[in-house]
């Protein structure tokens, strides 16, 4: 997600250069390159949004089964998931790689724009909001009972620290 955000910012640099006047009169930029920068920005934005959604889903899964571990640093499932996000985001924003004149002549453009808006903005927003609300509700319900502390001082300090963290995250103030 951080790389997608970084590349998104780099691809926004053309707008700064245009505003400052460095490429304002460039025919190459106006006729050939501008829509490519915009398409790359849209693609990287979609990648970033779906990576954020993936991270939220992973966070909920970690909360549901906190002791599940992986023997590898990077699993094949993780690589495939990120690859699918990049490919899916590219397919969602594919129409943006064409010049505006070509897009305006395409008869399905209103439907593609609607699908793009739903799949890149609203659906990830709803998924992330719902999962984060469910995660906070679950954290509020899942406070560790102090009676489970028994005699082990190492576990006791870890559980007390966990309870303090939970109270900070779920605090209403």
TrEMBL record:
Transmembrane segments: 7-24, 36-57, 78-98, 118-139
Keyword Protein biosynthesis recorded: no
Subcellular location as annotated: Membrane
Principal cellular location given in the protein's record: membrane
Native organism: Diploscapter pachys
Taxonomic classification: Eukaryota, Metazoa, Ecdysozoa, Nematoda, Chromadorea
Superkingdom of source: Eukaryota
Domain named G-protein coupled receptors family 1 profile: residues: 1-173
Record's keyword terms, sorted: Membrane, Transmembrane, Transmembrane helix
Protein name: G-protein coupled receptors family 1 profile domain-containing protein
GO cellular component labels: membrane
